[in-house]
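Can't paste images in this forum, so I'm doing it all in text. The chain is below; anyone willing to post the predicted structure tokens underneath?
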Amino acid sequence: MTLHNKKGVTNQNDANFWVSHWEALDDSEVGTGIVTTKTYFSDSEKYVTSKKDESNHFLHLNVVDGKVIFYSGFGWKKANNFLRKKIGKTI
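Text version of the structure:
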């Protein structure tokens, strides 16, 4: 998951197998997240570099029987579906 300008709020919850990021971007805000289950979860890692658009937050996953299951998504404030970030849920 990209951290864009590294000015947002990144969260992770290894006990519940998810990572998220919420940030102001241009004239709006964007939230992204990735979630999986205990079976596929390995760990998470925040990778920050000085290079533009190369910082990321990773959810490391296990391959089980040749597959990996995870869910990812995003919300854009201007779409009026997500108005602000709240840890654990978006309202």
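The longest strand covers residues 28-36. The beta strands are 9-13, 18-25, 28-36, 41-47, 56-61, 70-76, 85-86, 89-90.
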